[in-house]
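User: I'm preparing a small set of examples for a lab meeting where we compare how different chains pack in three dimensions. I only have the primary sequence for this one, and I'd like the structure in token form so I can line it up with the others. Please keep the answer compact; I'll paste it straight into my notes.
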Amino acid sequence: MSGTKKSVDEIWKELNARTAPPRSRTTGIAGFGIPGIQTHTRIVPREQPTALQQQKHIAGDVSVDRDAPKLAVAYDPAAAGVSPEDLQQYVATLQRTLNCVTDPDRSTRRAAIIGLHSKLLHGDASTPKASRQMLQALLGGPLLHPLATMLSDPLEKCRLTVLQLLLEAAPQLSDPGVLMNGLLPQMVVRMGRVPVQEPAEEVRLAGLQLVQVLLQKTTTSTLTSALEDICSLLARGFEDPFPDAKKEAAATLTVLADRLPAGALEPHAEKLLQVICMTH
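Assistant: Understood. Below is the structure token output for the 280-residue chain.
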């Protein structure tokens, strides 16, 4: 220590001369410089989920085969008698609803698919009822992928409403066969493999009903190329514990046999006969 003692006045001056740490201008406890507390608050915009993240969220606890064929179906709207411009304008009236179809919230998705069903088949203030030509262009084109994907939605109501929409629309289509390449792979994942992933009997029944409706106006070449998937769905239908599903599988097989040339079903006959004999 120094031999010279400082007076009280000198010590006071030294204390006052030291620079005090600047105080934050923020209010509340953040303004007191407490360690571990940020002195500035910044609101970061929430990052929007990607389409892949949304699909993973929608899949939820439903078992989906990741190796299922990708939905890459191209369809020229001119084949349905609709110009690309008219198709784009109509899709624009559906855009908000289509965005909600992939929303992470279950109730939002349910309301969206119910709304899409109503808009397409009945129309409302913002979207006119789709003509037969527009339905063909929509279901064969931009709507096919989201509707097929929704067949694996965790909500039974969403899955059933998709099938009901397609069941009501299919008879109006000039070429319903264009839906097969997009729908059948997803339907096989849900209803055509062992064990069957679809737990709801009404959904399984609606799936078989849709297959039968599509068969009736589909070209022979399209049916022949889709036979393996169709027969897988029918085989599970014959095994279904729901009696109405069994009946629908039998009726669909009858329609299929009538539409195909002789011998076309022979490669699949053994598989079908085995399940028919075991369950009847």
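A couple of notes for your slides: Residues 238 and 246 are 5 Å apart (CA to CA). Confidence is low (pLDDT under 50) at residues 23-72.

User: Perfect, thanks.
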